[in-house]
């Protein structure tokens, strides 16, 4: 079986953009206040510091480390005595904010020593050289390189979700090569008339074995996950002000069936949800 790209379809539909805001030596305590709809990616390149994640969960980092906060999360860094820490930081704008599928599936913080992330050194070397060079367009290149660092980190998490406290859910399913193929198919083509049989075929498994493993790893039935993914995509399209009838057709529903399923899960009609999501707060 050929390997599947576990992130491609998901990130094509729900993107992420990085924006660097700090690079250099951090000598004093600094608090990073939560930004609505934004995450953080920090690269501790050298030095030691205390990390307070805002819930009394202090940690001490003494080796080069990636710190990833998928959601708006209050955190504070306190460098150790001496020369401070060498740090590079970026904010992350996930499409859909906290409802971005990856953001919703990840813990509040992911902390990984850089030495454990395969293939990261060359990217970090290029990132440092672009920051130092300051040539035209370097900010755009730096931001894209932060996104590459994030993708390499996500690969690492998908290869060992249990190490980060992720035992079930979308990440758990994407960590399994066969279930990942079915999830990738759902992510890429939510409007397809998927059945247990066709999804099991994508995973190259029998229907019974597929259904059991899917539920064990993802924590939902294949049909339940498909429905939730369709609603997630539907809300994205509604927020872009696409007509309800067009959204329904894109997701394989009639207008009335989409309205019924949507209301069961969201407590309101698609049209009312779209109106509320595009109405400025007073």
The CATH topology of the largest domain is given as: Jelly Rolls
Instruction: Tell me the overall shape.
Output: globular
> What is the number of helical segments per DSSP (H or I, 4+ residues)?
12
Quickly give the structural class: alpha+beta
Mean pLDDT: 92
Largest sheet: 5 strands, antiparallel
Poorly predicted spans: none
The CATH first-level class of the largest domain comes to Mainly Beta
Strand content: 15-25%
CATH superfamily of the largest domain: Regulatory protein AraC
CATH architecture of the largest domain: Sandwich
Helix content: 40-55%
C-alpha end-to-end distance: 54 Å
Give the beta-strand count: 9
Round the Cα radius of gyration to an integer and report it: 21 Å
Describe the structure.
Helix 10 packs across helix 11. This protein has two domains: 155 residues, Jelly Rolls (Sandwich), CATH 2.60.120.280; 108 residues, Arc Repressor Mutant, subunit A. The radius of gyration is 21 Å and the shape is globular. The termini are far apart. The strands form two sheets. A five-stranded antiparallel beta sheet has the order 1-8-3-6-9, with helices on one face. The chain has a four-stranded antiparallel beta sheet with strand order 2-7-4-5, with no helix packed on it. It is built from twelve helices and nine strands. Strand 4 and strand 5 form a beta hairpin. The chain is of the alpha+beta class and 282 residues long.
């Amino acid at each position: 079986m050929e390997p599947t790209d576990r992130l491609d379809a998901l990130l094509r539909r729900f993107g992420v953009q990085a924006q660097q805001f700090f690079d250099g030596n951090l000598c004093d305590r600094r608090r990073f206040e939560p930004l609505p709809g934004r995450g953080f990616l920090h690269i501790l390149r050298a030095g030691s510091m205390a990390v307070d994640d805002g819930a009394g969960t202090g940690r001490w980092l003494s080796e080069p480390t990636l710190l990833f906060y998928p959601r708006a999360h209050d955190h504070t860094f306190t460098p150790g005595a001496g020369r401070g820490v060498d740090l590079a930081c970026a904010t992350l704008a996930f499409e859909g904010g906290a409802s971005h599928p990856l953001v919703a599936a990840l813990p509040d913080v992911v902390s990984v020593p850089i030495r454990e992330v395969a293939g990261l050194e060359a990217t970090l070397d290029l990132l440092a050289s672009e920051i130092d060079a300051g040539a035209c367009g370097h900010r755009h290149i730096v931001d894209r390189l932060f996104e590459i660092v994030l993708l390499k980190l996500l690969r690492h998490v998908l290869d060992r979700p249990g190490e980060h406290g992720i035992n079930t859910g979308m990440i758990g399913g994407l960590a399994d090569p066969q279930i990942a193929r079915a999830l990738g198919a759902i992510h890429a083509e939510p409007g397809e008339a998927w059945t247990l049989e066709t999804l099991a075929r994508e995973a190259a498994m029998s229907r019974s074995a597929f259904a059991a493993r899917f539920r064990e790893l993802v924590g939902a039935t294949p049909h339940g996950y498909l429905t939730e993914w369709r609603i997630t995509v539907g809300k994205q399209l509604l927020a872009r002000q696409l007509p309800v009838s067009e959204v329904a057709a894109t997701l394989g529903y009639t207008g009335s069936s989409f309205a019924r399923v949507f209301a069961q899960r969201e407590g309101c009609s698609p049209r009312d949800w779209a109106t509320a999501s595009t109405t400025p707060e007073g």
